[in-house]
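HOLO CASE FILE
Compound: tryptophanyl-5'AMP
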Amino acid sequence: MKRNVRILSGIQPTGILHIGNYFGMMRPAIALQDEGEALYFIADYHALTSLRDPLALRENSRRVALDFLACGLNPDKAALFRQSDVPQVTELAWILSTVTPVSRLELAHSYKDKIARGATAAAGLFTYPVLMAADILIYDSDIVPVGKDQKQHLEIARDIATRINETFGSMREGQVLNLPEARIQAQTEVVPGIDGQKMSKSYGNTIDIFGDEKEMRKRVMSIVTDSTPVEAPKDPDTSTIVQLYALVASKEEVEEMREQFRKGGCGYGDFKKQLFEKLWDYFAPMRKRRDEILRHQDYIESVLAQGAGRANSIADGVMKRVRKAVGL
Ligand code: TYM
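Model generated. Tokens follow.
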């Protein structure tokens, strides 16, 4: 029997979710929950590579679940769970590591970037992509919605799966692991932060999804711009303001802003105000839903427990196949 397409993605609970997370991964993931069997998890094992505060890790994990639900994840359609509630994933990561060339991991951009920013070269940080491959492969995932920064990790996961299949697959039993595909949306593959670089918790340039009004306004108003005077024409193609506005405004509204840029006579401050209004309104229904969920705290734990149950039953099946294939 052919099974449903399986969709999987994860998010690290290293801090507060920002609109880069939302438009890069959460929004597409929520849209995909209607197109197959969706599994979304909170990557708390991965977060341990940078967060060493148990209280914060636990609280952030709960908060990611809350925010994901507020943004529209429907637990009747998609399983939501903590990575660490499926500890089998670490067993698979070990097995995968036995076929992963160190040279492949040494080329990982995200590892090199973190080391360049002063992170200690811990073994867990180095083998991060192997655990990520295990996350994906343990559910026989077909589609993985992510932002562009995860593209290389997906390539590594496919590479590792291929190596396992070549080493342990057989004519009679077929391939051991399913090859996943990244789903990266061109318009939102890199959402810029307020300094124009990729929006990222570690760059301190984020606009949080659920920050309060004053804070969101302040962040938007501090978007970095050039010093073109109010009356002069401005280039909409290189503007972070226009790029962010396009995420939340209609086509006509974006065209209108682009036209105002080209004409001149309107300052960046006014454009930022327009952007803030749209952003604030865009997330209004989600803030409302979040407040409702907060009144039923037990709901979050029950969703996570239900999701973990579903994830465990799939992971157990795949691990049985893997253990048999490799001889354990
Ligand atoms: P993380 O927690 O850094 O980010 C979660 C998701 O948000 C996307 N994202 C962005 N997309 C567009 N523009 C941005 N500025 C932006 N910032 C973040 C990320 O691409 C990601 O999709 N390694 C992963 C977590 C993970 C995972 C997995 C993902 C662990 N195991 C298995 C998929 C499958 C990470 O650190 O994402």
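CASE NOTES: The first strand starts at residue 6 and ends at 11. The longest helix spans residues 297-326.
CLOSED: yes
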